């Protein structure tokens, strides 16, 4: 295999990706791309980011051998890459620190972001507090309802939350509104996109900032197992935690890679967020990638119990990796994820977020009594605190009692 | 023949309206009313679920149009039917790229050939336009370029090379329906555009009243205006009474024809 080298200079992963935005944003994106290229070569920037990773986030995150779960599955040795231990409770902070340092370098004075689960909103509000920049978070009204703890956290951190009432009132619509805000406030505003989605250079930039996950995991597993893992597994919403883990392993063709999407009530139903299983290529939020759409190209509403995966699109690099068959993608239903959420809590003493619970569910389902002597790394990219109310309700536990 | 090639030199009026708004049948009446005033250009908006560059008013129009599951084919049929009474008015489609892609570029062109004079694809930047522009120009349909206050001289030069029809200057950094109009800035940028291209420059985004139209004509070098959100807003102002809407539309269009 030739060395993996994506995207192209214009942001293409194969045929996917690109920049499909109005002329008001185009000059900004080109400028962002230029600035990003510049800081990539800047040693001071790298050092600043690494210091923050170490002392503010608590990196490297540990690689935990999940002994009890491994025993329960009776299959491979399972390792958790524990990005849920990061400050703010998920991988999202890695990307936010990178982007806010860039925003500072570009002289921007106002930060906006979209959020679904609230994890990216919290991470953005956190870095804004740290750097003293005003922060505006667009969040779907439906997500505000189901992610209340994170809403309060963002407010404590000094962010202004702007509820989005349009469309399905979730992540897709929050992103539309954030883009509109950016078009209106092009001069002073930096838009911190939370996943490997959106127009170029975001999918590349977010992947690069998140790939610290895979770089660490690679070193860590080589140390304990003296070999590369046989499998990588991660959940895919927009795809940032997954790209973060996968990217440093893409050239290792022996490492099999699996992405897990949210299938909601089932990938074949209308209530799904399994973009690559049920969708077709189209354009959403400035990027050409798989999307859930009807025959006229109208974007459908997604459904998942997990707000962070409730998105009818996916990052263009995943579409590419699917089409070249480097990564396989599967769907997991709400119900399966909820079960895995409980199993992991009981067996490992780790309450996972509902997003990685999808990855866990796939692992439990597909690896049970199989793949013995193999080694798996699963990206445990977020903790479940934010999901306690949602999960309690779904399981039928009265959390107010 | 492409009507856009014989636009007048000054005071060009372009009216934007979303297809299928508020319903498909009513939409026909709305466009017929617009056509009866013989504006220089009518822009037909194809409704899209995620109109990223549009403000709340056009968003709402899109939503209402899509409520009855309006298809792309139905919108194109509507445009075709209206073209019978087109006369000198130029027909321009304004849409998002996903609509064209999903319909199929060739099929799309087949449907609008000799009917539509120009097309604005809001989210198709210069960098991605090559193939589409070629197919369109083979069929004598102009790809209309947008220029924003963020587009610098160097970029404008690239964008405006071989431009046809008209140039759509976005009057403010903002989404459709934004309000602040900075005539000084508009004039400066329009002047600079006119140095690079000989096709008419229309100013759009935020033109709301007769006064705005007159001011653009007096205080800037622009050749005309595009009015969109303000036409749709009337429907909501009048509490969605359709017959009253048609009347207020008539009055408004008479006013802005200066
Ligand atoms: C814990 C967690 N995991 C995963 C995701 C999904 O995003 P991505 O696919 O970009 O990792 C989110 C999004 O909010 C999240 O909070």
Description of the molecule:
Chain A contains 16 helices and 14 strands. Chain A is of the alpha/beta class and 401 residues long. In chain A, helix 3 (67-73) crosses helix 14 (334-348), helix 4 crosses helix 9 and helix 5 (119-131) runs parallel beside helix 7. By secondary structure, chain B is of the alpha/beta class. Chain B is built from 11 helices and 9 strands. In chain B, strands 5-4-3-2-1-9-8-7-6 form a 9-stranded parallel β-sheet. In chain B, helix 9 links the parallel strand 8 and strand 9 (224-227). Chains A and B meet through helix 1, helix 8 and strand 11 of A and helix 2, helix 4 and strand 6 of B. Pyridoxal-5'-phosphate (PLP) binds next to helix 5, helix 11 and helix 15 of chain A. The site of pyridoxal-5'-phosphate has 21 residues of chain A, from helix 5, helix 11 and helix 15.
Provide a quick synopsis of the model:
The complex is a heterodimer of chains A (401) and B (258). By secondary structure, chain A is α/β, with parallel strands linked by helices.
Query: In sequence order, what are the helices and strands of chain A, one letter per element?
Result: EEHHEHEHEHEHHEHEHHEHEHEEHEHHEH
- Strand arrangement, largest sheet of chain A? 3-4-14-9-10-13
End-to-end gap of chain B: 27 Å
Q: Beta-strand percentage of chain A?
A: 15-25%
Q: In which range does the helix fraction of chain A lie?
A: 40-55%
Mean pLDDT of chain A: 96
Structural class of chain B: alpha/beta
What structural class results from the helix and strand content of chain A?
A: alpha/beta
Report low-confidence residues of chain B grouped into runs of 5 or more.
none
Radius of gyration of chain A: 19 Å
Strand order of the largest sheet of chain B: 5-4-3-2-1-9-8-7-6
Computed over alpha carbons, the radius of gyration of chain B is: 17 Å
The unreliable regions of chain A are none
Helix content of chain B: 40-55%
Q: Largest sheet of chain A, if any? A: 6 strands, mixed
How much of the sequence lies in strands of chain B comes to 15-25%
Choose one word for the global shape of chain B: globular
Give the termini separation of chain A.
Answer: 58 Å
- Quaternary: heterodimer
- What is the tally of beta strands of chain A? 14
Most residues in contact, chain pair and counts: A-B, 34 and 40 residues
């Amino acid at each position: 295999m030739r060395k993996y080298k994506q995207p192209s200079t214009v942001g293409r992963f194969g045929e996917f990706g690109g920049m499909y935005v109005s002329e008001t944003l185009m000059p900004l994106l080109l400028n962002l791309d230029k600035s990003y290229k510049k800081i990539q070569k800047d040693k001071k920037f790298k050092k600043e980011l690494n210091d923050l990773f170490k002392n503010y986030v608590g990196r490297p995150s540990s690689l935990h051998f999940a002994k009890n779960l491994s025993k329960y599955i009776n299959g491979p040795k399972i390792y958790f890459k524990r990005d849920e231990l990061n400050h703010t409770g998920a991988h999202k902070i890695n990307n936010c620190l990178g982007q806010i340092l860039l925003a500072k370098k570009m002289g921007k004075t106002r930060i906006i972001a979209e959020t679904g689960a609230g994890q990216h909103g919290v991470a953005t509000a956190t870095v804004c507090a740290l750097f003293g920049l005003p922060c505006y978070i667009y969040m779907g009204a439906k997500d505000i309802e189901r992610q209340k703890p994170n809403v309060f956290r963002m407010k404590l951190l000094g962010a202004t939350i702007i509820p989005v009432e349009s469309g399905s009132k979730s992540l897709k619509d929050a992103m539309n509104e954030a883009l509109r805000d950016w078009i209106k406030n092009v001069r002073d505003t930096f838009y911190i996109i939370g996943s490997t989605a959106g127009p170029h250079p975001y999918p590349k930039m977010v992947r690069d900032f998140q790939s610290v996950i895979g770089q660490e995991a690679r070193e860590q597993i080589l140390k304990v197992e003296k070999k590369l893992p046989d499998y990588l597994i991660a959940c895919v919403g927009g795809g940032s935690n997954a790209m973060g883990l996968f990217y440093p392993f893409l050239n290792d063709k022996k490492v099999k890679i699996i992405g897990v999407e949210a299938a909601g009530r089932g990938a074949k139903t209308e209530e799904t967020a399994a973009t690559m299983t049920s969708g077709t290529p189209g354009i959403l939020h400035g990027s050409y990638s798989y999307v859930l759409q009807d025959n006229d190209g109208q974007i459908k509403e997604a459904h998942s119990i997990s707000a962070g995966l409730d998105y009818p699109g996916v990052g263009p690099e995943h579409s590419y990796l699917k089409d070249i068959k480097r990564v396989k993608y599967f769907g997991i239903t709400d119900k399966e994820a909820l079960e895995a959420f409980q199993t992991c809590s009981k067996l490992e003493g780790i309450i996972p977020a509902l997003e990685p619970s999808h990855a866990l569910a796939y692992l439990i389902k597909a690896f049970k009594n199989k793949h013995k002597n193999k080694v798996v790394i699963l990206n445990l990219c977020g903790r479940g605190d934010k999901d306690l109310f949602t999960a309690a309700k779904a399981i039928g536990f009265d959390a107010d009692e | 023949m492409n009507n856009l090639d014989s636009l007048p030199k000054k005071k060009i009026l372009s009216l934007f309206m979303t297809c299928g708004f508020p319903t498909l049948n009513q939409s026909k009446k709305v466009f017929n009313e617009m056509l009866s005033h013989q504006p220089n250009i009518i822009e037909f908006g194809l409704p899209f679920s995620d109109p990223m560059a549009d403000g709340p008013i056009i968003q709402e129009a899109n939503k209402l149009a899509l409520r009855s599951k309006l298809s792309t084919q139905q919108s194109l049929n509507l445009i075709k039917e209206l073209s019978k009474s087109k006369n000198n008015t130029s027909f321009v489609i304004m849409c998002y790229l996903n609509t064209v892609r999903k319909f199929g570029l060739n099929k799309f062109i087949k449907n609008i050939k000799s009917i539509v004079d120009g097309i604005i694809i809001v989210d198709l930047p210069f960098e991605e336009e090559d193939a589409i522009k070629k197919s369109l120009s083979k069929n004598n349909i102009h790809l209309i370029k947008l220029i924003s206050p963020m587009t610098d001289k160097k970029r404008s030069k690239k964008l405006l090379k071989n431009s046809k029809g008209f140039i759509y200057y976005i009057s403010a950094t903002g989404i459709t329906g934004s309000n602040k109009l900075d005539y000084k800035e508009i004039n400066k940028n329009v002047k600079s555009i006119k140095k690079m291209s000989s096709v008419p420059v229309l100013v759009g985004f935020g033109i709301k009243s007769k006064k705005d139209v007159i001011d653009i004509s007096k205080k800037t070098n622009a050749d005309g205006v595009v009015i969109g959100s303000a036409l749709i807003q009337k429907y909501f102002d009048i509490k969605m009474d359709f017959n009253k809407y048609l009347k207020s539309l008539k009055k408004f269009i008479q006013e802005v024809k200066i």
